[in-house]
Amino acid sequence: MSTTEPQDPAAPQAADGGCCGVNACCTDAERSTDPTRTVIEAKTDAGCGCVADRRDDGLPVVVIGAGPTGLAAAAHLAERGLDFQVLEAGPQAGAAIAGWGHVRLFSPWRYDTDAAARRLLEATGWTAPAPDHLPTGAELVRDYLLPLSRVPQLADRIRTGARVLAVTRQGVDVTRTIGRESRPLLVRVRYADGRVQDITARAVIDASGTWGRPNPLGHSGLPAVGEREAAAHITGPLPDVLGRDRSRFAGRHTLVVGMGHSAANTLLALAELARTEPGTRITWAVRGSSVARLYGGGDADGLPARGALGTRLKAAVQSGAIELVRSFTITRLDAPGGPDGGPVAVTGTTPEGERVLTADTVVAATGFRPDLDMLREVRVELDPATEAPVRLAPLIDPNFHSCGTVPPHGERDLAHPEPGLYLVGMKSYGRAPTFLMATGYEQVRSVVAALAGNREAADTVRLDLPETGVCSTDLVTEDRAGNTAAGEADGGCGTSCGTDAAPSGVAEPVEAASCCGSSPEPVALGVGAPAGVGFATGRVHGHSGDAERGDS
């Protein structure tokens, strides 16, 4: 809708002569008569005719990120016939996942793909992988994400090597209100060759994730003194200990910091390495006094591979293969020049006083945080604690939720004061380590339905949950390092947490004679589902489950 165009004579009129729902239609002075509604929302709800004249008609939806959630958004946009572009900073689809390609997911293939994506793939002759197989990150990319990025409906709309620098409104900064909603969104992107381009869009779906934005090793959310100078001694959360990076860890001392599943995965890989490489030592440092949450629910976990991870880690600590240092808060790192100049000294406080741990390499499995700098010129409404959309934040708060108890949610929970802007996938969870791929798939299905004008479909938030959980007769006892559950890229649940597992606190829709081999039974969970609805983990959820047990 242009601010200079005359009012549509066919549009319903407000008592003061303005377009319905606002005080003055199609002028810079227009305001919603309901202060809780945006101008566009007010006009749409009232059936105002001049909404159809918006300036951004015919512009594409821009999707940021070509990971699982971003490509699922593209698949839904393609199915609904909406124009779109996908911007991926990496050299290929799934580039971030390729960085932890050696890690195996918690859940089998049957729960790792999006429905719209499967429909597009199957039309090309694609055959779904064995449904009960636990894929690695590399297999997820090779057998799902890359083929999906090449289907005819998506291939020409995905630009790789395209890093988004900023999102804004064309012609106005974040302070400008008058006429704001009549202008299209603008995405500034820098390509691998250095070229910078501005792309106008009717909507932006930010599925850029959090990979590459690690939390610091230091306390209080800040880097420790000397952390930057010690960078040569620090690795990311998921090094390929048994493969590409083996020489860095074999026969050396590694300090793993963090209490997410990425830390657990790396610790178990190091324990496997130590069996064959003399002199390999492993220290695990955690800030808290309890590791019960990471040990998990064992056999009670709805995802057996996730339960097995905690069970194996607990056994490795109790056997002495891994030295556990609790209540260790890092304050300083002192490193010699270069990674081969000698060990790094990591100083921390403990209840007993200051302590120094020395190690050749420090694995920072401390989680991730979202890149919000790119959104400084658009109006986002984020929870101050989690940095997630304010309506979503209470549903995912890690103080009370694990990835097992986050209820389904859709477009209304993800909307911001900036119409047409959505944060989805792992980025929508901000700093909360509770994300599941299945949740991201449902997010974008709902968002795209809303963009297509199907409010009913957008508000009917659903998840396909298995009847009684993901079953297998060999996962829990499997002890080969290459077949363990995956660690999260965010230090908590993350994408590699897999997807669906048994709903907790929900009655089974039908009685199952055996969950092993049974097909999923769809369960509709609407907006506002109770907080207890989710996926069974076998433990009290969130940080409230951190209380130490006698055997932990």
Distinctive features:
five-stranded parallel beta sheet, alpha/beta, disordered C terminus, 14 helices, 552 residues, 15% strand
Model description:
It is a single chain. With 552 residues, the chain is an alpha/beta fold. Among the domains are: 61-212 and 369-459, FAD/NAD(P)-binding domain; 228-364, FAD/NAD(P)-binding domain (3-Layer(bba) Sandwich). Helix content is 21%, strand content 15%. The protein is built from 14 helices and 18 strands. The protein has helices spanning 39-45, 68-79, 95-98, 115-122, 137-149, 152-155, 246-249, 261-276, 292-295, 304-319, 393-396, 411-414, 437-451, 455-459, and strands at 61-64, 84-87, 158-159, 162-169, 185-191, 196-201, 203-206, 234-235, 253-257, 281-285, 323-325, 329-334, 344-350, 353-359, 361-364, 421-423, 463-465, 521-523. The strands form 5 sheets. The protein has a 5-stranded parallel β-sheet, with helices on one face. It has a 5-stranded parallel β-sheet with strand order 8-15-9-10-11, with helices on one face. A 3-stranded antiparallel β-sheet has the order 4-5-6, with no helix packed on it. Helix 2 (68-79) packs across helix 4, helix 2 runs parallel beside helix 13 (437-451) and helix 8 (261-276) packs across helix 10. The longest helix has 16 residues, at 261-276. The radius of gyration is 25 Å and the shape is globular. The N and C termini lie far apart (62 Å). The relative contact order is 0.13.
